[in-house]
Amino acid sequence: MIELKGDSLTFDEFSRIVYRRDPVFLHPLAVKKVQESRRWVEGHLLKGNKVYGVNTGFGKLSETSISAMELDALQLNLIRSHACGIGEIFSEEVSRAMLLLRANALAKGYSGVCVETLQRLIDCLNKGVHPLVPSQGSLGASGDLAPLSHLALVLVGEGKAQYKGEILSGKQALEKAGLKPITLKAKEGLALINGTQAMTGLGVIAYLEAEYLADIADRVASLTIEGLRGVIDAFYPEPHSVRPFPEQQKVAARIYSFLSDSQLVTKQGEERVQDAYSIRCIPQVHGAVRQVLGYVRDTLLIEMNAATDNPLIFTESDQVISSGNFHGQPIAFAMDFLGIAVSELANISERRTERLVNPQLSEGLPAFLSNKPGLESGLMIAQYAAASLVSENKSLAHPASVDSIPSSANQEDHVSMGTTAASHAASIIRNSRVVLAIEAICAAQAVDFRGVNQLGTHSKQFHQHIREVVPILTTDRVLSTDIENMAEAIKQRRFILKEGFDE
């Protein structure tokens, strides 16, 4: 069981809940804070005080007062009218991430919801009721209004959800899970949809995948170095000690440890003085990617545990404050930066693949790693596929965060496009996973020609794992399945990495 308190959710807990479905419950302190916040809302309603989103309209309509008899209808109308999402449905993991992160934000006790409403979000998580949320339609301020509205619809028995593999109406899904729809009270509809949980949920999933991809990239690059009989001197600690980026130093040390007992690597001057940049500069490029991952990690960790709706209720000082915590700019920047970094991980990988298959660059390997060059094309077109994906990444890496478009009659006149940035980053990660899968296939084929028995201990183990997924290429065959299988094996983390980056 994992406790939600609103301020201490970790990446490990996120993974356990989203992927492994560990159960969740509210910490008693969170329950107390939520109850206090709700009492504040109800007290001010009794006094007739005007509070945005509680007894007023929304956005440009914030000066319109709503009668006491229509407050519940106001919240339901909000959810229905804002459910304008379009496009493909987010994955089940993203839906779970949104449920989790919205519950964690409300558990902070600044949103004025009923405990029962918050509990229903947690019930959906624990019982596997996953709202179907369209992936397009968010401007990233006032948060993820459209995606979160589709999430909230299921809580009131509307919209659609997936339950045990079956797509049902929200009402049917709740009933099959033994749950009842909730009735939204004053402020609750706004509290459910005013936040950054779509971009943040998608962003955390993308970050976790990118982190593993960076680990795999070091492994794959090491195998390529052996396939090309690379010069190991570039990974000695001395050059990295005088440009002391910690991430660069760690990547160099990690790759050096993988290659330290290899009989395939060479030393400076034995066969050549130095390698091309895509080999020699791996620590500098992979290390810089790690720097970006650190920035993204820190940004997401704050946002995972933040109150991002509006207005926020501060019971201790008896204040309700309209502010802009729903604005997704921090996540938009982080996701754009993540996409740029991972696209570079793919760019340098594709260049290494080219060196493996190009007979003018491969240090004596057969052309295109074919057993019968000319009669057979070997892995020639695998490099084409990688080149296509890195080119696509360059378009996707154009920053979404530099764009903005006014909405709500110019009341909301600057937005973040953070969910677009997160979606682009996720697409870049998917593409880059395939690019690295292609390099891994080519590197494994190269060392088969060189002699697997000469590999270093770590690379020998990694090569064996690759061969469990993709058999050696002895004659031309359809490679699409091999590439897909390798990419899926990376996604499923089937390669056990005994050495973590920080070890």
Automatic annotation (TrEMBL):
PROSITE patterns: PAL_HISTIDASE
Family matches, as CDD domains: PAL-HAL
Localization annotation: Cytoplasm
Main location: cytoplasm
Protein name: Histidine ammonia-lyase
Class of this enzyme: lyase
UniProt key word Lyase: yes
Family classification: Belongs to the PAL/histidase family.
Pfam families according to UniProt: Lyase_aromatic (PF00221)
5-imidazolinone (Ala-Gly) crosslink site(s): A141-G143
Modified residues (2,3-didehydroalanine (Ser)): S142
Enzyme Commission number(s): 4.3.1.3
Reaction(s) catalysed by this chain's protein: L-histidine = trans-urocanate + NH4(+)
Pathway field: Amino-acid degradation; L-histidine degradation into L-glutamate; N-formimidoyl-L-glutamate from L-histidine: step 1/3
Keywords (A to Z) from UniProt: Cytoplasm, Histidine metabolism, Lyase
InterPro entries (alphabetical): Aromatic_Lyase (IPR001106), Fumarase/histidase_N (IPR024083), HutH (IPR005921), L-Aspartase-like (IPR008948), Phe/His_NH3-lyase_AS (IPR022313)
TM helices/strands, residue ranges: none
Post-translational modifications: Contains an active site 4-methylidene-imidazol-5-one (MIO), which is formed autocatalytically by cyclization and dehydration of residues Ala-Ser-Gly.
Superkingdom: Bacteria
NCBIfam families the record matches: hutH, PRK09367.1
